[in-house]
Amino acid sequence: MNGSSVRLFLEVAEAGSLSKVAARRQTVQSHVSRRITDFETECGGRLFRRTGRGVALTELGVRAVAKLRPWLQATEQLSDELRSESGKLLGDVRLGIIPSAAHPLMTRLFERLQAEHPGIRLNIAEAQGAELDAMLDSGAVDLAVLFRFHRPSGGEERPLCVAHTYLVAAAGDPLTRESTLNFSRLAGLQLVLPRHPSHWRNALDETARSLGFKLEPIVEADSLTVQKELVARGPGLYSILGPYSVSADLHSGRLQASKLVKPDLSRYVTLALPKQGKLSPACRVVAEAVQQLVESWGHQLAEPSMDVTRGAPLPARSGAAR
Question: Dmax of the chain from CA atoms?
């Protein structure tokens, strides 16, 4: 039985949708549908039935998931063990990451692996938190870097660092020359915010409501690039972002930012591990490398401070959260 076909089947079973899986894999739905049909032929019966919202498992499909998930985990683990015993660490590691934390962390991770473990090949999926959680559950990714609103306490996630929240504007904006701003100062501002549904957007809207006002976005966009471009080119426009997505723009002087306080919307950057099965040797190396990179490059990955008199970035404070 082909491992890639089993992996695709389990991913569709978890997502409940052919189109969602096709979007994650950056392919067309018809390609995913054909592969599932071929796999059903191998299994001797229908594994899915179509519903108004996607697909649902048949009785045979439910039994197949129960048998094939542990089979796939055992097969991948055996393959990794044989490769490691050959004296050279080899294997693919599927790593999911939220867009705002992807750079420069992924660049540095790739460079380290190329220097120390060139036999490890990264397969990087960029997605939002809820989608990454689903991909972890289905086995579509082995590890994931996520934002959490609460510090993780279980063994399935390792805390990496803390990210605060910033009001971001074009260089020279008078409001964001202040080092900190109360969240209530957002009332009446022309904002560029992520679209619904979004856990982050919900948190922002709820915070505003608790302070007695409503956020009024002039533009809604999921793309971080679009948000930053609009703000950089549009005087009087603002966005609410974390430090990692704007660090390079702050250091270049293209954007400037003030930390939002009262309340301080802190989020925890975590490394999520598989909920089922063990980490392969290659996955363990990648997990350890991610943690070490955040620690060793903390002064560059940490949150930028701003010289409010000149609008130019200063080195991160030594007490910044790692």
Answer: 71
Asked whether the beta carbons of 200 and 279 are under 8 A apart, the reply is: no
- This prediction has a pTM of 0.64
* Residue bearing tokens 């082909």: 2
Residue 227 has which token pair? 């948000």
Q: Give residue-wise pLDDT tens across range 171-200.
A: 999 999 999 999 999 999 999 999 888 888
Q: What is the DSSP string of 189-258?
A: -EEEEPPSS-HHHHHHHHHHHHTT----EEEE-S-HHHHHHHHHHSTTEEEEE-HHHHHHHHHHTSEEEE
pLDDT digits (tens, 9 = 90+) for 259-306: 999 998 888 888 998 766 677 888 889 999 998 888 765 544 444 443
At residue 262, the 3 state secondary structure works out as coil
Alpha helices in the chain (DSSP H): 3-15, 18-24, 29-43, 59-85, 105-116, 129-138, 199-210, 224-233, 243-252, 281-296, 298-301
What tokens were used for 14? 């978890």
